[in-house]
TrEMBL record, chain A:
Record keywords: Cell inner membrane, Cell membrane, Membrane, Transmembrane, Transmembrane helix, Transport
Record's GO cellular component terms: plasma membrane
PANTHER family: ABC TRANSPORTER PERMEASE PROTEIN YPHD-RELATED (PTHR32196:SF21), ABC TRANSPORTER PERMEASE PROTEIN YPHD-RELATED-RELATED (PTHR32196)
Descriptive protein name: ABC transporter permease
Superkingdom classification of source: Bacteria
Keyword Membrane: yes
Native source species: Acidisoma silvae
Automatic annotation (TrEMBL), chain B:
Subcellular location: Cell envelope
Chain segments annotated as transmembrane: none
Keyword vocabulary terms for this entry: Signal
Species the sequence originates in: Acidisoma silvae
Protein name, UniProt field: Sugar ABC transporter substrate-binding protein
Amino acid sequence: MSSNLIAEQAPAFLDSSADLEDRETRRARHRSQIIRLGSIAALVAVFAYFGVAAPGFANLGNLANIVEQSTVLALLAFSMSIVVLGGGGDVIRGGIDLSLGANLGLCAAAFTVASNAGFSDPVAVAITLAVGAAVGLVNAFAVVALGVLPLLATLAVMNICGGAELVLTQNTVISANSPLLSYITGASWLGLSMTDWILVGAAILLIALVHGTRWGLRLQAVGGQRQAARAAGLRVSAYLTGTYVAAGLLAALAAIVQAARLSGSSPGSGDILLSVVLTSLMSVVFSRRLLPSIGGTLLSVLFIGGLINGFQLLNVSSYWVNGVQGVLILFVVAVRSLSLRRGSV
Amino acid sequence: MTLLRKLLCTGAAIMLSSTLAHADDVPSLKGKRIGITVAGTEHYWDLKAYQGQVDEVKRLGGIPVALDAGRNDSRQIAQIQTLIAQKPDAIIEQLGSTPVLGPWLKKIHDAGIPLFTVDTVSPYSINDTTSDNYRIGEELALKMASDLGGRGNIVVFNGAYNVPVIAIRYDELRLVLKNFPGIHIIQPELHEVVPNTVQNAYAQITDILTKYPHKGDIAAVWQAWDVPQVGATQAIIAAHRDEVHTYGVDGSPDVVKMVGDPNSPAAAVVAQQPYLIGKTAVDNTARYLAGDHAIPPYTFVPSILVTKQNAAAAARELGQN
């Protein structure tokens, strides 16, 4: 083959290569669309089934209960999704915050102890937010400044938070009663409790922030292609630090809601971590590019909340929920792994 | 004995004669849905009391809506919230932390759903079926004081004081010890944890035996339930400090067996009858739903002090053979 012939055929080769790439991209997009629409259809089908079969499921009060019961998990899952978005989706090397559950427990203890020490609600809230943000900063320091794997760094911080909570509470239940806690559990507006409104407000705010602002889009760029983002002049370290601090602040907000629901601080709050990780993982099937999103996280949390609620209304043993949740996660992880193997979406 | 105590004991006597003796006369629960919410079932006591309730609701023809919170306060609150929306004919709540549950038990009451409790004192409960924890605490403390000859240092686990029945047993210990000035509680008191209670109690007792290394430094370990007792007893055996004896409450089969072993440092356990407690709570509920509103606020189910001397006979009486 002469060099002329190669030169003549090169554009054709490049064209066909570009076509192939386009086809692959289109296929990948098509696949993720099918997964996304299929997941939404499954959610709608499950809720429709419960609506028909489970007595009282579709009542407005019961639906509000589902939202209320999901609020703490949702706020923590939002945190996890933000950290994963900024740190990347790689399970081992990517963004993850395993300290969220323990941070929740520590912040709830901080709020309760501050409240019982006579601090007013605004001061107790400020202390709680400061504790949550401080935990986020420690995570960020370990990950960004020291370069420790997020998985290991946040695992260590989880233990620090757990220990600090034990020091504060002596591993006992501490009850608290304040106007703010009573307001969160007692007040309602348009048939929804304040807890519901906190979730609605946080979801709207975070969807706008993460998916509708320059900061959010750049955050996704940092998580998707860190080198490219750095080359483009983005301050990657600042974005990563921001995700951990935001996660800490959301954990503090979740802690105040939890303190209201439990009338104080109760040991064992860290048990929620597994649900947070699983829910955040699940959220990818509700997004266009199989990446975590705030909307997808919200749907995942409500899906799990609806399942638990529906099972109880149908008088199906609560033990089944764990099994079903596990199957869902296995499905989601398998779908994501297959998609990644067949090409990026 | 306080006035309240006398009243409770009188109530117990009345209930024991009127309820336990006529267990076969329990009205049917046919067509009735009974919500059963329990804090957890990982301990022998919890599981047997839970099974006692579920079995009895089914035996009486009712439909149990049985919910196990897996020792997670948030989950139990969510389950109670959904249960209220389900509007069952009655709800039975078993154990859990009073400060956490209090407002939610009030919501059950406010929703007009008859509330019964197992081992949980609440102003919103129509009836609480439980052991006589005043007697349990007193009996265990007196047995320990007697074994110690009225003198010695004791280690106390006091990490679950927020659970009312535990608080009663601990307060009774303190009351008894007022009259035994030669017995001292080593400070600070220990705090058992949940979960990993056995392993943690083992580690804590190992540490304290190291801190007090001489024979006679510690005479006994007291705990208000028997899961830490397992860990404490194992730690004492491992440290070859058999002069230290352990005392606890609940009477799981493994602990009753341990007490029966003449070589074990486990000296005594007050065994409750959790299955009978659960069953009795449902019987009370059935009677109330059948129109008997004269149900007294407390039903006390007898417990047995198990010692080295009577362990075999007690195990038979408890149906643990």
